[in-house]
Predict the 3D structure of the following.
Amino acid sequence: MAKTNTFRLFIVVVAVVVMSGAWAVWHYMDSVGPDRQVARFLEQHWQNPLPPQGAPPAQFSALEASLDPKSCGTCHAQQYRDWQTSLHSHTIGPGLLWQFDLMNQAEANKCLRCHAPLAEQKALLAQARHWAAAPSTKPPDYVPTDLAHQGLVCAACHVREHRRFGPPPLPGKPIPAQTPHGGFTASKAFEDSRFCAACHQFPADGPRINGKLHEDTYEQWRNSRFAREGVSCQGCHMPARRHLWRGIHSPEMVRQAIDVKLDVSTSSGRDGRYHAVISNVGAGHDFPTYMVAKVYVELDLVSPDGKQSRSLARRTIGWDVDSDLTHEISDTRLPPGGRLDLADTFELPNEPGWRLLLRISVAPGEHYERTFTSMLNHKQQLSAATLQTLSAALAQVRAARFVALELARPCPARIAN
């Protein structure tokens, strides 16, 4: 018990002292939310910082008390499998860890507020990185030693002071008479977009570039038809309550978000005309919502054997800012219902069989690619360990690029005079 108390005392101090200057997100949330009951629940549930769990109830088994996602997966197998495939399980990775090498504890905790929000996770990282006031004892048994590196774990959303919270049961699925860990408290907040806004919306006084908040997804959604029609964030990113949270990294989600059309016609015997339209029909926020991702639109004229091509159009969809986050380069994001039109004439090929090929490709971490590459230009100032982690981060974001879709149309041949 002494070890548990020592660890608990430490995480209380670290959480309060380091994060006391964080943004008052929930005052903002409450002011925009029509459902005060949900807003009050969320204000309590997403305290900043989250308090430590404390000692588990004496009647809890080791499995019931554990904060390890694998323990949750013992009963919630499907949710655990889905979570393992999601980005929520990878919110602590090389892209963040190399930055921790250059940050002090207070700066790192601002990141951890969303990337690993549990007080127990922060304490483990403090130990591993020898930050100030790191506990000298091992964590209690209910805290696995790798919890900090597991990212946004189940307990971050569902456990407070060892009490379990979740959405109301679905119709026709009553709560069993006997449940582990004392059952759970049901709240409609888990089905409300404001639940996600805890991490996916900065408050009005948050950091901005050219007057635009770095993270503004909830407000983008709130001003869209999706909010008016009652389609929540969970409705798209957690279909049938699955813990998937797919987004711009997913080819399937990109294809659901956009509608793509391509028409080709003849404007004269020598010239053709193309008209391509890319519309944001399925994302309830800007496409893409953040500055990190870029979507590339390429339209080419391709020969019958595929060996020759002629570029007809190139566009980038996204919010482009410099790697220092000081100024905006361009903003071509598509708001909900917005569209990109590409139309022009081109010289028709002499022979038949040519085609127009429209390709939509995605670089989910393009901003990070530029930032990490820029840092590598100063590698002489980095330790060998930091350089290794940074290189792994760059390789990871580059590997995430993909082609979301291709659309081809036959090209008419030139008509001889």
